[in-house]
Design a protein that fits this description.
Length: 144
Amino acid sequence: MFSKACEYGIRAAVYIAMQSLDGRRVSVNEIAEEIDSPMAFTAKILQQLTKNNIIDSVKGPTGGFEIEREAMDTVKLSKIVKAIDGDKIYVGCGLGLKECNADKPCPLHDKFVDVRSNLRTMLQSTSLYELATGLEVGLTYLKR
């Protein structure tokens, strides 16, 4: 459903949020290792997240990536998805067809409208803080 870059972006943001709750900045190497992502690919994803004001990048010997506690409540998964994948998840065809709409629907069109609506609701209502605290208390897992 999400691109691989988007999956890694969500995992990276959640990991950074979790570490930020403990007052830690994390390096790209640590993030790549923890989310099981190639380092160069992770660096590009982190650039996108920084550019879109989702995470903060601090340069220097004590630098790394972090997320302010206040931002964790306001950064919803929808913002991460939009920063990396755009809005195609909300408007694209469920079968990947170029021409699919209410006038010329694919076989999944009507069913996919409901799925897309529920997905949008979930992404817009789920915060990084919610996910990071779920990890922190061991209710959810980030690695495979």
